[in-house]
Q: What sequence folds into this?
């Protein structure tokens, strides 16, 4: 299921019938159901509510119950989406209530061919590998790892989601009709041939996702007009795309190429082994080693974990591992709790990582910290569409013992066109030790959904970034005092406002509003106070003409004479059409006209 608020078709305030949830907005839709973002006033938080849309007694019930069990066992992992509760809506539809990850999905970020930084992709792949290894050790195959099923938290952390395709490792691989359910673009070749899914198949899908993250496209993206048969043939025989010309280090490319081998036996045997190869590549390039977090395997906590398969990377010898365990055992009780076991597992993992780094780099020093300090994120919060936000200040501090020069200040990411740097106090001069500077940003969201971007700068040859987050929400017609009536009740603004100027000042603004229930468009015009003050001097009046135009000969029009300051048209049935709204204000004394027209908006 693709999670993307770009496809919102509901106005604000959809009622879900889930106790404690309000202000629901659709953010994703698939054959299984619909995902909404909803507000929980009791906890002052946004949540994601996945509602089953199919027949509760059909095959979707089994998938829903399977996802509930899987998430219940695994969602305490920091890189698996958190399940809060489950139940049925007032209408009887089953639902899952999960943590809402405001960063959207990795698929959203990569849509349209956008590529990510290879460093970020490798770190994200290691994090998700920890989640995948945890699921595997619990006896669960995910079977559908892909960018759309990796969500990004507000802190920029990846979270593995959508366990609806997951199966116990002993389950049958296909349905009764033999249909393959995995996603073609990231599925292993043997899965597409109908062979049973496996741990190496999940590893392939994760490596395919990491390569997509770096390249901006899947390893074997379909060409225009290409048949499915041709695409499957290329997946089966073509070599993995070489990322080296893009500046990706050889170690990263080699790890991805091994994990994307056509033969499952030639891939890393586990997600943990794949993660270790990526971590070794980080060491080789002088990057900090990303943590590999392994959670509890679920099920019986007293049961043994599966042994390391043959072929898994072993950075420490058995004697070294025993010495490490003994060194840490002094801080653990004779019968450690589950939390202590989890902590011990993480500590051992960090110790192994340190030993691996020393073995690979000899006497290599630990990477130095960044010379400047950036905030963890730049939060814009909830913003109305097409309205400029207040300025957000990004403070940058020099923590080096010498002056530094900041360069290359830029905005990147899917929402970069909706952001603007309005003041740059950082790249105009060197920054003294301990000194601080500030960059000021504004946002003008153009589409409902998450704002996802990064503010990047370069210092001493290192590129640093801080995430910019927020959410655009539709502007309700009630905010502009819409007249009574069912079509106005659920209407919300579509497209950007248009402005007309008189005497160098903003004189009018025009908006289009769309009613989902009536499938109708309404136009609205506001006459700004500075125009009214000038035109009304000495009792002057003006005339307002407002209309909604489409490919029909009779538009909806409204006219007002005197000193009107706002005007609405009647609802204009516009289903399946593209409409524009035009307003003209004419000063009755001078006959000087001011006009503004919105961009076309299409209901298709």
A:
């Amino acid at each position: 299921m693709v999670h993307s608020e770009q496809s919102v078709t509901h106005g604000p305030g959809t009622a879900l019938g889930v106790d404690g949830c309000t202000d629901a907005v659709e953010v994703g839709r698939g054959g299984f159901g619909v995902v909404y973002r909803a507000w929980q006033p009791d906890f002052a938080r946004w949540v994601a509510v996945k509602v089953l849309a199919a027949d509760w007694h059909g095959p979707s019930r089994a998938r829903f119950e399977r996802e509930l069990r899987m998430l219940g066992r695994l969602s305490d992992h920091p890189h698996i989406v958190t399940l809060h509760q489950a139940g049925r809506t007032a209408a009887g539809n089953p639902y899952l209530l999960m943590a809402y990850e405001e960063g959207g999905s990795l698929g959203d970020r990569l849509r349209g061919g956008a590529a990510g930084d290879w460093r970020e992709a490798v770190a994200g792949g290691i994090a998700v590998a920890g989640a995948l290894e945890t699921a595997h050790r619990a006896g669960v195959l995910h079977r559908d790892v892909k960018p759309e099923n990796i969500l990004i938290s507000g802190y920029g952390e990846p979270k593995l989601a959508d366990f609806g395709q997951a199966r116990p490792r002993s389950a049958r691989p296909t349905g009764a009709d033999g249909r393959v359910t995995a996603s073609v673009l990231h599925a292993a070749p043997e899965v597409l041939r109908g062979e049973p899914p496996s741990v190496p198949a999940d590893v392939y899908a994760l490596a395919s996702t990491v390569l997509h993250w770096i390249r901006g496209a899947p390893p074997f993206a379909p060409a225009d007009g290409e048949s499915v048969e041709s695409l499957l043939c290329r997946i089966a025989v073509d070599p993995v795309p070489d990322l080296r010309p893009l500046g990706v280090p050889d170690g990263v490319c080699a790890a991805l190429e091994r994990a994307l081998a056509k033969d499952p036996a030639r891939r890393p045997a586990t997600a943990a082994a794949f993660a270790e190869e990526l971590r070794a590549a980080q060491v080789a390039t002088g990057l900090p080693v990303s943590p590999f977090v392994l959670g509890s395997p679920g099920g019986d906590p007293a049961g043994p974990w599966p042994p390391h398969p043959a072929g898994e990377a072993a950075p420490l010898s058995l004697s070294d591992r025993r010495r490490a365990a003994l060194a840490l055992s002094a801080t653990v009780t004779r019968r450690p709790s589950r939390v202590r076991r989890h902590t011990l597992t993480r500590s051992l993992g960090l110790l192994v990582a340190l030993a691996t780094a020393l073995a690979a780099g000899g006497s290599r020093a630990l990477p130095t910290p960044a010379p400047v300090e950036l905030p963890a994120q730049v939060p814009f919060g909830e913003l109305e569409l097409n309205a400029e936000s207040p300025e957000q200040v990004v403070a940058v501090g020099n923590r080096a013992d010498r002056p530094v020069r900041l360069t290359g200040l830029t905005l990147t990411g899917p929402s970069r066109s909706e952001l603007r740097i309005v003041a740059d106090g950082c790249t105009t001069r060197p920054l003294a030790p301990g000194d601080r500077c500030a960059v000021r940003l504004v946002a003008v969201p153009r589409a409902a959904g998450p704002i996802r971007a990064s503010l990047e700068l370069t210092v001493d040859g290192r590129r640093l970034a801080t995430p910019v987050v927020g959410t655009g929400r539709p502007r309700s017609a009630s905010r502009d005092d819409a007249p009574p009536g069912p079509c106005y009740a659920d209407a919300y603004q579509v497209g950007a406002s248009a402005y007309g100027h008189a005497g160098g000042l903003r004189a009018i603004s025009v908006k289009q509003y769309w009613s989902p229930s009536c499938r109708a468009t309404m136009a609205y015009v506001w006459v700004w106070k500075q125009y009214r003050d000038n035109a009304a001097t000495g009792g002057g009046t003006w005339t307002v003409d407002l209309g909604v135009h489409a490919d029909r000969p009779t538009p909806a029009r409204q006219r007002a004479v005197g000193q009107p300051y706002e005007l609405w048209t009647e609802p204009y049935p516009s289903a399946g059409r593209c409409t524009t709204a035009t307003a003209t204000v004419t000063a009755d004394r001078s006959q000087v006209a001011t006009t503004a027209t919105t961009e076309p908006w299409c209901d298709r």
